[in-house]
Design brief:
By secondary structure, this protein is mainly alpha-helical. Helix content is about 75%, strand content about 0%. Bound molecules: fe (ii) ion (FE2) (2 copies).
């Protein structure tokens, strides 16, 4: 890798996030079916970690990338992507309400893995190619910077996500609160002006 962080265009940046999600998914898949205390703790950690990553990534895409795609590139694909995000969001909300020892937990994990992998395939196979064909490099780099700014609004690890702290999961789930926080923060800034 010779490019520095701020030279990366939006396709490189979002693709790197996708690879990171997949790294977590691969580890999660090895843990499915395991019920020992270490495995359960690790599953919770990984699900929480990937959830935070996906939420930040999705809100950044929905606010900084999809609107441009919708207007200038491919309206159908932008719509489909938002729908796929919404589905994964529901799965993540179900997962945060569950204990890793619950009977349905692993099934939901595998659902999330499938939903995100399919979504990533659609983005990388179609939307990203269209982005590069439509916008010049400067514009794609600026989009990457905008994505980074949105991701920086939220903490890397939300405090309530601390795994298994006396079994306490907070009232307002981290997914819901993160989504609210991020979407409010982004929409409240009037960034879309101009
Ligand atoms: Fe993505
Ligand atoms: Fe996406």
């Amino acid at each position: 890798m010779t490019q520095t962080e701020d030279q990366r265009d939006v396709v490189d940046l979002l693709s790197a996030d996708h690879r990171e999600f997949d790294r977590v998914f691969t580890e999660l898949e090895t843990l499915v079916g395991q019920t020992g205390p270490d495995a359960l703790r690790r599953k919770r950690e990984l699900v929480d970690e990937v959830t935070i990553g996906i939420v930040k990534h999705s809100v950044a895409e929905e606010t900084q990338v999809y609107p441009r795609v919708e207007k200038q590139v491919d309206e159908t694909e932008a719509e489909r992507s938002k729908h796929e995000h919404a589905e994964a969001e529901e799965t993540m909300k179900r997962l945060e309400r569950m204990d890793p020892g619950d009977p349905g937990f692993d099934t939901e994990v595998l659902t999330l893995v499938r939903e995100i992998r399919e979504h990533v395939e659609h983005e990388e196979g179609r939307m990203f190619a269209e982005l590069r064909a439509t916008f010049d490099r400067d514009e794609l780099v600026r989009m990457a910077e905008a994505v980074q700014r949105v991701k920086a609004i939220a903490p890397t690890r939300a405090h309530p996500m601390t795994p298994n702290e006396a079994g306490v999961r907070t009232v307002l789930g981290p997914v819901a609160s993160l989504l609210d926080h991020l979407r409010d923060a982004v929409s409240g800034r009037g960034k879309t002006a101009g």
